[in-house]
Amino acid sequence: MALRFIAKDPNTNGTQCPTVWVDDTAHEIVVQGWQAGDTLLAQCRETGPIPESEGVVRLPISMVAALREACDVADRLGVH
Fold this sequence. Notes:
Blueprint: E1 3-8, E2 19-23, E3 28-32, E4 34-35, H1 38-45, E5 57-58, H2 64-76
Antiparallel strand pairs: 1-2, 2-3, 4-5
């Protein structure tokens, strides 16, 4: 796996904060965020089940630029 760091949440102290990477080998966007609480999970499940192998994380709006950059990197990898 070639994990490429994109950014950490600019509104935090730089440790234990939401982070975005791109995995060049697996062609995936990888995110670290806050765990979803029961209320958010229940709202997400209204659109369908969440498999045991998946999870829901929350990212602050301040991470939008990092997500855009990660999407741009993924586009350059030619994976669609």
